Amino acid sequence: MENRVFVIKDMVNQQDADKILNALLEVWGIGRAEVNLNNSNAVFSYDERMASYHDFEQAIIDKGYEILQTEWSSTED
């Protein structure tokens, strides 16, 4: 599993957070996802055999948001 944290620009209210969470959850291969409005970030894990980082990045961009920063780590199954 890959773990990622996106810091997202202009996520200012719960509606924004919900849009971002739903965008992540719609990508095939998602394991879990959480959005923290106070920190303007989204934390998620996914199966890299089913999806790529770019799939999640594009899902956020398609909703009209910009990713300012990305952090990641990889874990064994």
TrEMBL record:
SUPFAM superfamilies: HMA, heavy metal-associated domain (SSF55008). GO terms for molecular function: metal ion binding. It holds the Pfam family HMA. It comes from the Bacteria. Residues 17-66 form the HMA domain. InterPro entries: HMA_dom (IPR006121), HMA_dom_sf (IPR036163). This is Copper chaperone.
